[in-house]
């Protein structure tokens, strides 16, 4: 049945079909000035929660009534409380943030994700000069905790799950606080199926196209003038993995992106660059290997197989459910990871 609504003063009344095993709860919010942002323009935020969870929401003043299947009502309540807390903490509430909260509402730890251990500790977040990053999935919570507790972190999973972005944000945060002196970002210069041909310019010009995603994450976390200044001073270094050979990376936060495209020899070389007061994050998608010559055993898979369980090393595995880009990206990932098509079998 199509959703219909009629507005009278501050009340939105939704017509509801009769169903069995329905529940109704009421949520009251203390700060009226936040309600406009909570509801969204023309109640768009409430409509998003309704459509995703199959509930019906009526708002009157500072109270919201939710009706629908029991489990969906519980999730909607948790989502709305999470949305309100984000606004209380001064964070923006867009459709992506709401989608993330809806996804996390299926997790029993949602309250801990929002407030940090049920309010006993500060919220889980990474602060940079330009923004504050908060987890948008339960796996991101695990990942962000691992980034503060372990020396070497492997982040495995599909595109759009925040593997590299969160690692860069954590690195920028530690660089700003002085807990590390350098930020080193690297990735193998392997073409993703296409042939780029001859690239003009000096070495930096030749490798920059491969490293563009790392630059994008940096500029999203720091003002452009600071990025340029720190690049010029050497505090931030972006280079292909081949440039790591023979070095010891001390007092540094080191990130290797697209690690599935390393050979076993390259991965061993990279990991053994680890120095005092350093942290390494290795990001990659084991299902997107672009190694030349038909090589399918990447250095990433080999390293995880050998090192998982070693003290000081953490492995975080993301799935399509953790994709935090547009929801359709998650559905695309799931479709590609499903049963083989007739073309694959051929």
Automatic annotation (TrEMBL):
Keywords attached to this entry: ATP-binding, Cytoplasm, Nucleotide-binding
Domain PhoH-like protein: 133-337
Location within or outside the cell: Cytoplasm
Transferase keyword on record: no
InterPro entries recorded: P-loop_NTPase, PhoH, PhoH2-like
Record has ATP-binding as a keyword: yes
A Pfam family hit: PhoH
Family statement: Belongs to the PhoH family.
Protein name per its UniProtKB record: PhoH-like protein
Species assigned in the record: Novosphingobium organovorum
């Amino acid at each position: 049945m199509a959703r219909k609504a009629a507005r009278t003063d501050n009340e939105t009344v939704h017509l509801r079909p009769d169903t069995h095993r329905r529940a109704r709860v009421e949520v009251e919010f203390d700060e009226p000035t936040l309600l406009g942002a909570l509801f969204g323009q023309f109640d768009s935020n409430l409509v998003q929660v309704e459509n995703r969870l199959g509930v019906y929401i009526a708002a009157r003043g500072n109270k919201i009534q939710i009706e629908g299947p029991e489990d969906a009502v519980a999730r909607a309540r948790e989502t709305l409380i999470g949305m309100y807390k984000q606004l209380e903490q001064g964070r923006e509430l867009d459709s992506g943030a709401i989608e993330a909260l809806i996804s996390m509402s299926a997790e029993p730890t949602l309250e801990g994700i929002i407030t940090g251990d049920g309010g006993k500790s500060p919220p889980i977040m990474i602060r940079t000069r330009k923004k504050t990053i908060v987890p948008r999935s339960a796996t991101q919570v695990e990942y962000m905790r691992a980034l503060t507790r372990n020396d070497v972190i492997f982040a495995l999973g599909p595109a759009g799950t925040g593997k590299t972005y969160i690692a860069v944000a954590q690195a920028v945060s530690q660089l700003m606080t002085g807990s590390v002196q350098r930020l080193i970002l690297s990735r193998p210069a392997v073409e993703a199926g296409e042939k780029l041909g001859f690239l003009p310019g000096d070495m930096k010009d030749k490798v920059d196209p491969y490293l563009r995603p790392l630059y994008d994450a940096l500029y999203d976390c720091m003002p452009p003038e600071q990025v340029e200044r720190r690049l010029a001073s050497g505090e931030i270094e972006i280079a292909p993995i081949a440039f790591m050979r023979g070095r010891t990376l001390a007092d540094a936060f080191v990130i290797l992106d697209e690690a599935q495209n390393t050979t076993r020899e390259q991965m061993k070389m990279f990991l053994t660059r680890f120095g005092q007061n350093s942290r390494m994050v290795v990001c990659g998608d084991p299902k997107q290997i672009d190694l030349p010559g038909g090589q399918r055993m990447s250095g990433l898979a080999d390293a995880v197989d050998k090192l998982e369980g070693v003290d000081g090393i953490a492995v975080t595995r993301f799935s399509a459910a953790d994709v935090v880009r547009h929801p359709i990206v998650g559905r695309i990932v799931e479709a590609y990871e499903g049963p083989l098509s007739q073309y694959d079998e051929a």
